[in-house]
Amino acid sequence: MPDKTKGYKMQQKKRKRRSRRIRRLQRDIYLLGIVLLLILIIMGVVQLVTKSYIHRHDDGKILSGITVGGVDVSGQTKDEAVQTVQGVISQENNVIFTFKVADDRAFDVEANTLGLQVSKLEDSVQQAVDYGRRGNALKAYKIMKNAKRGKLTHDILLQYKIDENTAKKALETAAVSALNEPQNACVTQDALGNVSIEKEKSGEVLNTNKTIENIKKLLKAWDGKNATIQAKVDEDKAKVTAEELKDATDLLGSSTTYYDVNDSGRAQNVESGAKHLNDILLQPGEEQSADEAMRPYTEENGYAKAASFSGNTVEQTMGGGICQVSTTLYQALLYAELDIVERHQHSMLVSYAEPSMDAAIADDVMDLVFKNNQEYPVYIEAIVGGGSLTFNIYGKETRDPNRTVTYVSETLSSEQATGTNYVASDDPIGYINYVSAAHPKISAQLWKVVTENGTEVSREVVNHSEYVSSPETYSVGTASDDANATAKMQQAIGTQDLATINAAIQEIIYGY
What we know:
Layout: H1 4-56, E1 66-68, E2 71-72, H2 78-91, E3 96-102, E4 105-110, E5 116-119, H3 121-130, H4 137-149, E6 154-156, E7 159-162, H5 164-175, E8 186-189, E9 195-198, E10 203-206, H6 208-219, E11 227-230, E12 233-236, H7 242-245, E13 250-258, H8 264-276, E14 280-282, E15 287-289, H9 290-294, E16 305-310, E17 313-318, H10 322-336, E18 339-342, E19 369-371, E20 378-385, E21 388-395, E22 403-415, E23 420-428, E24 432-436, E25 441-452, E26 455-467, E27 472-479, H11 483-494, H12 498-510
Helix pairs in contact: 1-4, 8-10, 11-12
């Protein structure tokens, strides 16, 4: 039989050991609680001491070594810091954002032209005021100590925003120089008369919305210095394709006129106007306004001041000379036999076209409007330079090869101008310059003559034109610092008598 006494004693020993372990654990927990309590008391005391220190040294001014957007605001109050930062920002107008289009292409924009503004400036300055004064007391205490020792450097980033409408305009203007323009397909003709089509090439257009998103990403952590931003571009497809020109390779009509390259302003206008009318594709039934294609007549659009007709006088206007462009085009359109919807003659005869073979442009008053009356597209090519201007009209030739069209200008009546006209100019007093020859009064009409196999089959009047006369014209200088002298010259010009004008010049310049 088992020994019951022995088993009982073993159980008693186990109970005692377990009891001793429990007492030791209770003692350890008690000691740990005392330690933790002491730690909490010490931490509380430290917090109270450090908070008291912070409070005693909180004079409401920003700690030394703190900057806002890179601007030192050490020792300043909130209001003072706001003024300081605003003053520096207003002077920083030379920050440049470089927008990268490709590895070898980029464009620069001045940051202030994007409508750049500081957002929530007072909040940023408040962060500077609070730094080392709020939050964890120990951390704040260390910050204050570092500030006193001159070892603190901390920058509060400014928050920026842009005006999106302003930014879009600035980006679109600046991006032009860095983007590849699309190249329309075009019809070309070599020296032997062989016609070919050059295929179109796509270009690039700036995606302003996505580019602005990249600007916003930069501004989230911008340090106020020059920066590089990736520009987003989309494909810009050509307006005229080789497929559209496949039925526009026959020369339907052509005309050439000549201009004086030494007349720089007028030459510039002729060349600019021609370039605006180049590369135009008209679908069947489509109309085109020459004035709409060439305007606005501004320096930004490639134009300069030059002589132009105004009634029976000649004056300097922006875009003077573009009527030669519309006239040359008009003649080419006549030979191509496209519909002329609107055409006007000049007020006086022009040297580069026979009577009734001209077409004037004048703001919203006079225009050359034409229509593609063919069953196929027509393509307009302008070739200009070196004093020569040519317009070629290409399409699909459907006319009888034995049929010929010519145009004949007929003068119905003519009356020569008499006398001499003197007009005031901005030249200094003493200058008299030749402006234009006399223009006769002319009544004319234009005949369209059609022959087949050398025999005339029809003759019809295309237009009727009336031109006013104008005497030989000279400009007389009236510019002077003396208003009385200018008034005297204008009065003399009003007499339209050369002797009186010369006498006034002698009196003003030489005193007799």
